[in-house]
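Each letter names a residue; the fold follows as tokens. Both lines appear below:
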Amino acid sequence: MLHPSERAPGLFVGDGVELPDDVWIGGHVVIHDGSSIGAGVRIQDGAVLGKPVALGPSSTASRELPPPLAIGAGAIVCAGAIVLAGARLGAGCVVGDRAQVRERTMVGEQSVVGAGVSVDNDVSIGARVRIQTGAYITAYSVIEDDVFVAPCVTTTNDNTMGRHGVGFELRGALLRRACRVGAAAVLLPGIEVGEEAFVAAGSVVTRDVPPRTLVMGSPAREVRQVADEELLERWR
């Protein structure tokens, strides 16, 4: 149950919420029951944390009640962002303005979920990942450490577009360590983008991308290998 709090203007806090003294809270924030907020977290205006799950009648997502939200130390949840119950945000990560992170999704340390990004349920995001404005990360995707996802990238997980029987397995994207996916690229269900691979802007990826390979086009085709000087280690 939500209760008004004098900690910040318009703040409502649920039962059992852990809220350290050094947490900074903007105006009109809502923190639902049981949410765990780490030391030094910043919560900007209008954010909703630990929101209960609401599913449509045809949704295939789990109906099991998720555990409370957990946010690691030093994380930032920006204005208007919504983070559902069952999500876990790692230390020092950022969830941008108006972004959404759904239930049973994990965001690793120092990762950035950009403004307006939608991260669906049951997604795993590693450390130091950058997901830029307006991208959509579909349910059951896995994003490993140091991946870059450019603005408006779309991942998908259902080739039947909802016309499947009971037990059909949805397959999200698998983005391997340090790969890069360019602006407005579209990844079909179950696509794997290999370690240090590069998907050019606007590509439609219909087949797996091998490691250290640059692909472009619709459908995406191999163009060349990623050069040594482009590898992540060169820029650290």
